[in-house]
Amino acid sequence: MKKVIKKWVEKRLQPYRRQLEGVDPSLPERSLQPIPVAVIGGGLAGLVTASILAERNFRVTIFEKNPYVGGKLGAWEKELSNLGKTWIDHGFHAFFYRYYNLRAFLEKIDVLKNLVPLPEYLIHGRQIHLSFQDVETTPVLNLLAMRKKGIFQLKDILLHPRLLELMELLKYSPVHTFEKYDTTSFLQFSDRLGIPKPMQRMFISFTRAFFADPDRMSTAELMKSFHFFYLSHDFGIQYDYLKGDCYHLLIEPALQYLEKHHTRVLTNQDIQRVEKDSGGYIVQGQRFPYVVLAADAPAVRRLVSKTQFLRTEDPEWQEQLMGLKEAQGYAIYKIWIDRQLREEYPPFFIVDRERVLDACAQFHLIDSNEAAWSREHTGGVFELHCYAVPKELYGDEQGLKEAFLTELIQVFPELKGGRIRAESFHMNNNFTAYYTGLYKARPSFSEKLKDFLIAGDWVKLPIPAMLMEAAASSGVLAANRILQKEGLRQEPVWTVPLEGILS
């Protein structure tokens, strides 16, 4: 039976890696004359866009508001008491194997060599220890394998036939799924179906990975994420991670690549508005025939509210851009402590959150510098993540730190009494919201403005990519719009199957 299901799945879904549209090889690759382009935002979407255009003889200028480049992948040096200068990231990042467009960019800038595979995808807490290490990776079979993990039992479905509605996960459609489920929160969906507690915990770990509590997360967005991450390929849930800090292993190689292709990268550039006249677009007093707006959702909303030409040329699109919402705040608390976990856990794992602790990264197992500190002090370097900060704690650094440590010690009592020798904390709310009811008005490219493009994980895409892959894919699509207008060969856009196996 297993072989029959596997053959049927492969027939329905393969190839798992697909090209969205064909590329005309007869078109020229490079522009004969250098063409200026402004990219507003030096995050992942902006870097991908710039890398493609710079290769094709466009003269790209990146305007970044922060003193560092990389956006949510950015890293900066920080002076810490008892530790000195160290590199701080926005947090641990997972590079999944179905991030086809992102991995094409990483290959181009020679960064794939800096990735190593996570040995085990784990959800751990006081009441759950769920490993995906040995779970079947073929779609459908990976769902059936959940029964052996105790996520559900056959009697659950027999006694609660409403659970059959979970088959909608296999029917994902960018039209049907969002028409039916976008206005329903996952909490409402879960309560209506009576989803068993272990399965509910697994799903909630997914909702928080998108920076939303289950009462806010769109069920349609959750179904899209499950399709993209779990049900449209045979990679399973495993992924790679950087074996050190983001700056030296990713951002620095990206900047070196851009410099090689004559890209200007300007930091500390807080763009307040873009103006337009008969000669093109004006950014920071410089004129460009093309602009790519690749900032995060809150920055985009602020900028377009002051951009006058949008009100007359495409007011409906401007309204969509101004309607972008940021997700709940997230917080990262990194501690250098003179204790280690008693048992062996992977370098990164999901925590079955009780109040704030969503995930934990053991950087003494990731970064050689942190490993050296660990050996010297017989301790550990832990990065604690909260992906959806409770409303009452947002802005309360001390309260969040205390909540992090309380929950960490509840899950790992062996850390109680440990001395924290150094710490770093930051909180932000610049991730994109995937809340109920937002999908319909989510902006895609303007059909009226062919030379004013957008890129970011907040863009409505023709493919089911999410998070870093959404950012990278939007960057390729934005660059392609410019290449198309200039009569040049476009870049291939890769995707998982666009719909579920039963759609």
CATH homologous superfamily grouping of the largest domain: FAD/NAD(P)-binding domain
- Describe the main β-sheet briefly: 7 strands, mixed
N-C termini distance: 22 Å
List low-confidence stretches.
none
Global Rg: 23 Å
Report the sheet-strand fraction.
Answer: 15-25%
Helical residue percent? 25-40%
Number of strands: 22
Give an account of the 3D structure.
The chain folds into three domains: 2-72 and 245-325 and 443-495, FAD/NAD(P)-binding domain (3-Layer(bba) Sandwich), CATH 3.50.50.60; 133-230; 327-428, Alpha-Beta Complex (Polyamine Oxidase, Chain A, domain 2), CATH 3.90.660.50. Helix 2 (44-55) packs parallel to helix 16 and helix 3 crosses helix 16 (467-485). The chain has helices at residues 2-13, 44-55, 100-108, 141-144, 154-159, 176-181, 186-193, 197-209, 219-230, 246-260, 297-305, 308-313, 315-322, 368-377, 397-411, 467-485; strands at residues 18-19, 35-40, 58-63, 75-80, 84-89, 95-96, 115-117, 122-124, 129-131, 239-242, 264-266, 275-277, 280-283, 286-288, 290-293, 330-337, 348-351, 359-362, 380-386, 420-428, 452-454, 494-495. Helix content is 33%, strand content 19%. By secondary structure, the protein is an alpha+beta fold. The protein contains 16 helices and 22 strands. The mean pLDDT is 94. The strands form six sheets. Strands 9-8-17-18-19-16-20 form a seven-stranded mixed β-sheet.
